[in-house]
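Colleagues,

For the teaching module next term, I've prepared a clean inverse folding example: a structure given as tokens, and then the sequence designed for it. I'd like students to try predicting residues themselves before seeing the answer, so please don't circulate the second half yet.
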């Protein structure tokens, strides 16, 4: 079994590689960099631990980009973490992970989310139980088949060494998870998602988690570079802000990671780093048929096979 130190070393290195890559893109048009905010949960709080939240705001390419690492410990697993493991309810636990959301400025560049994590609990028997979770998903405002196909192909390639069943299974899981059930509407075009995963054994399951984390830049940055200079106007910007409102709804109402952090007494400012800097809502707004905005609903926000 891999040690906690091995997992932490991988996750902190992943965070650094990803934020370095985004700073490289921003450096081509300005000098905006990530603010690094190290934090500690002191003794006496419900949750103990530490982390590093990295946030970049006001960039030429990324209006807001957050990438956080956390390593926390607590006396009782919260309900959101024991949904599929009721025998561990109330057990001491530790959790660590990297979570990111990048909100681009240009409406033709999609938002991306990724999370990779490990949770370990100690049941009454005393033998630690660990499992992994993670995935990535793409949320475009204006859809392009080649972008979505590239993103899904990257996910499929990353999972291929771990079994032919993994991509279709995790792709379906992603479609089911990233759904605004109160609207019967997908959040985006999906990707892959897995949780409570240890079926390959600890070492191999950890390798699979790493494969997902390692493919984020290859899956996303080519899309950013392809779309970041696309001209846009007020119409596209307003639609982007309206669709960002859906992102907020999902994160607050349905996201298990958000619920886990808030229920366990996590650091609120870091938990909510996924929120966009601006968003809007409108009553029963629906695009005109045949428009690019309408195509988002009719072609892209419908679960389908992209590769």
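(Answer key — instructors only)
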């Amino acid at each position: 079994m891999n040690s906690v130190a091995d997992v932490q070393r991988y996750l902190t290195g992943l965070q650094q590689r990803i934020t370095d890559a985004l700073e490289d893109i921003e450096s081509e048009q300005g000098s905006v960099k990530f603010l690094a905010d190290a934090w500690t949960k002191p003794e006496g709080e419900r949750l103990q631990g530490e982390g590093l939240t990295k946030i970049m705001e006001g960039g030429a390419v990324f209006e807001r980009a957050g990438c956080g690492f956390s390593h926390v410990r607590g006396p009782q697993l919260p309900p959101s973490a024991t949904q599929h493991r009721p025998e561990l309810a109330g057990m001491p636990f530790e959790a660590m992970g990297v979570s990111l959301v990048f909100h681009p400025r240009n409406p033709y560049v999609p938002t991306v989310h990724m999370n990779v994590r490990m949770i370990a609990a100690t049941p009454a028997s005393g033998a630690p139980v660990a499992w992994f979770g993670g995935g990535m998903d793409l949320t475009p405002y204006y859809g392009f088949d080649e972008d979505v196909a590239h993103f899904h192909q990257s996910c499929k390639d990353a999972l291929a060494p771990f079994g032919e069943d993994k991509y279709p299974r995790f792709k379906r899981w992603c479609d089911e998870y990233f759904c605004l059930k109160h609207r019967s509407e997908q959040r985006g075009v999906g990707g892959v998602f897995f949780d409570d995963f240890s079926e390959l054994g600890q070492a191999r399951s950890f390798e699979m988690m790493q494969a997902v984390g390692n493919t984020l830049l290859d899956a996303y940055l080519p899309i950013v570079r392809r779309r970041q200079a696309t001209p846009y106007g007020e119409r596209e910007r307003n639609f982007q802000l309206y669709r960002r409102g859906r992102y907020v709804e999902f994160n607050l109402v349905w996201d298990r990671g958000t619920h886990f952090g808030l229920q366990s007494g996590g650091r609120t400012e870091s938990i909510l780093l996924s929120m966009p800097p601006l968003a809007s809502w409108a009553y029963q707004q629906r695009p005109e048929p045949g428009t690019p905005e309408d195509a988002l609903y009719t072609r892209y926000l419908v679960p389908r096979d992209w590769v």
